[in-house]
Amino acid sequence: MNIAVLGCIHGDIEAIMKFLDKMSVLSIDAIVCPGDFTDYAVPKGFSRTDIVRIILEELKSLHAPIITVPGSWDKDVIEFLKKESISVHGEGKVIDGVGFYGYGGARTPFKTPFEPAEGEIMLGLENAFGEVKRADIKIQVTHVPPFNTKIDLIPTGAHVGSLAVREFIEANQPDAAVCAHIHESSGVDIIKGTKVINSGRFPEGYFGLVSVDDGKVDVKLSNLI
Question: Taking the complete model, does pTM exceed 0.85, yes or no?
Fold first, then answer.
């Protein structure tokens, strides 16, 4: 199973159309979007739901199931994502033996619309994990990276990820954990036995690949430029 991780689209529909064309030649069995479909501004005459609907139509060109959590800008579309049956925000979903579970949002200095507290993230992950704990392979999906890793660093050198996300990974050791949010820290790391990846900003060509083959899980960061 080949899983593409496309994060932090931020309403940049024109850019993602170009990169989705390039991705169409790849063998993709599922698409994970770890949030921030939208941005601080929305074009006049459009709602955030309109933007997400257009993005989803473009993603469907890859002909693969879509799994999502909301980003810090996506509070207004949480219910829409659930109605589309693609959300694992506080819930779980099993596809071909792979259990996806997660929780969205992220704390920031910018007072974005969806900034759940650490306790809320932990509770949401616990509820979601409970729905997939019997799956052979488990993949955690959050918007925010785990704290104190290679993938939660900002240019000042500070770690700004979520301690709750890290603690949950340490306690439950999913096979992989995917995230986005910190654009400048795209990359991979490992926490105990869990391979973690920050997929970066897809409109810049960055995306993650999670491969599941005969019970073995690998992650890598790729760029379409």
Answer: yes
